[in-house]
Amino acid sequence: MVKTVKPTLRHGRPGRIRNQERTLRDKADGVLDFLEITHVADELAWNLSGGQKKLLELGRTMMVDPRLVFLDEVGAGVNRTLLKTIITAVRRLNVEKGHTFCLLAQGSVEDILKKSAMSPKLVWRFL
Asked: CA of 13: how far to CAs of 58, 59, 68, 117, in Å?
């Protein structure tokens, strides 16, 4: 089944979908706003760029409110602008919602942060 971004986010949370449809729809809309991807909400998920797909995966993770999130190769195939958006979202989720993140990368996290034009000290403080 081919899904656009909104249904992919809505169905990222297993359970009683019918009973929770309105709540899930509102939550998905909030995630779209938080990640600044409302402009691709009705796009087919497979048509997204690599960075947008990483944001979508982060959004699906947000739908289940995890305590711990592992992000593998967050900077791979992602342009500088979207990488900064991803790192900013990770930081906000940590500070505002208390999520803990583990960034996995072949290179150093500092390299990822340099590519995203963010200060490593800012990020290391919350990881």
From this structure: 13, 11, 16, 33
Q: Which residue, among 89, 25, 92, has the nearest Cα to 63 in the 3D structure?
A: 25
Strand, helix or coil for residue 104: strand
What pTM was estimated for this model as a whole? 0.71
Tell me which of 56-65, 66-75, 100-109 is least confident. 100-109
**3 φ/ψ sector (left φ>0, alpha ψ -120 to 50, else beta):** beta
DSSP secondary structure, 24-81, as one string: HHHHHHHHHHHTT-GGGTTSBGGGS-HHHHHHHHHHHHHTT--SEEEEESTTTT--HH
- At residue 105, does pLDDT exceed 80? no
- Cβ–Cβ under 8 Å, residues 103 and 127: yes
